[in-house]
Amino acid sequence: MSQSKTGGARRHVNVPVFIPHLGCPHTCVFCNQRTISGVGSFDPDSVRPIIDEALSTVDIGDDCEIAFFGGSFTGIDRGLMTELLDIAESYVSAGRVSRIRCSTRPDYIDDGVISTLQRYTIGTVELGIQSMSQTVLTASERGHTPDDTRRAVSMLKSAGIAVGGQMMIGLPRSTMRDERECAEFIADACSEARIYPTIVFEGTELCRMMRRGEYEPLTEADAVERTADALEILSCGGVRVLRVGLCDTENLHGSEYAAGPNHPAIGELASSRIFLKRIMSEFAAADGVRGAEADVYVPVGRISAAVGHRGVNKKAIMSEFSPARLRFIEDGTLSGYTVKLTVKG
Ligand code: SF4
């Protein structure tokens, strides 16, 4: 169950229901889901207990949402999909959750899916966009095109359904520029996003490509740099970034992990990187910082990201600009990645 605060004291709580990848016909090179369980069926009767258990831990007044994750929800058997939506909707009718969300592929949105979704209280559909470059989508064997994504986004928005965009960093043949373009598309079209640096899992085609020398996984430093770039574009575009990187529970350190940037706090590292860039540019533009007392103002709750893991940003600033004193101070008037620098002689 994921929880976050929305503005005031009201918590937003996602009640995730993971739908296995029932007979997925696709062959995305990075995917380790198809090999995991060989699950051929899914028992809808298992859903109510999952939801009831999750809801038993929430507080009165929490803003709850049932989220069908883990598969291409709108690509599963239509009868099963409506059965699951009926179950979720009964919680909406009972006032126990506010709305429903699901994740799916862009090419699994069509008129039939839209009219089915419109019969329910669907708040958001998260699309596995991954990249807006045809070259990258082809090299990753995604099986859909950037136009499929544009069409899906426009259909969902016309139907009054909010769209979340999931994108990946470091897919085969992907460049920082491709990732920037994907982030710009999401910033323009979506209200939420998730960013996943590519991990190579054992048993995947990507792993075989890597071992044949056809794919080089991202180093952690590259992943942080490129993720920071996308994250900054999304945040500046007013997109709510729900997650950066896979969860530690997603076999990031287990036997299935083969290679790639698996730092469990890669999102925090990327945030720190954005702060470093912005603070450095404030220092570069300021006069007389050497030997002066410098105060860096950052949004509330962002000091540790601004200072960096083990003070890495602070050390970099001290070494580049040599202020006599460097303090980081929270400022309630700032938000996002905005920083302010004051220098006293
Ligand atoms: S990532 Fe690709 S291959 Fe894996 S389950 Fe999703 S659509 Fe299928």
List keywords for this structure.
single chain; 345 residues; alpha/beta; TIM Barrel; Hypothetical Protein Ychn, Chain: A; 2 domains; 8-stranded mixed β-sheet; 22% strand; binds iron/sulfur cluster
Describe this structure in words.
With 345 residues, this protein is of the alpha/beta class. The protein folds into two domains: 2-264, Alpha-Beta Barrel (TIM Barrel); 278-344, Hypothetical Protein Ychn, Chain: A. The protein has twelve helices and 13 strands. α4 links the parallel β4 (99-104) and β5. The radius of gyration is 22 Å and the shape is globular. The model has no long low-confidence stretch (mean pLDDT 92). The structure holds iron/sulfur cluster. The site of iron/sulfur cluster has 10 residues, from α1.
User: Which strands sit side by side, in order, in the main sheet?
Assistant: 1-2-3-4-5-6-7-9
Small-molecule components bound = iron/sulfur cluster
Order of helices and strands: EEHHEHEHEHHEHEEHHEEHEHHEE
What is the highest CATH level, the class of the largest domain?
A: Alpha Beta
Rg, Å, rounded: 22 Å
* Residue-averaged pLDDT: 92
Give the helix tally: 12
Alpha-beta content class: alpha/beta
Question: Roughly how many Å apart are the termini?
Answer: 50 Å
Largest sheet: 8 strands, mixed
Please indicate the count of domains.
Answer: 2
CATH superfamily of the largest domain: Aldolase class I
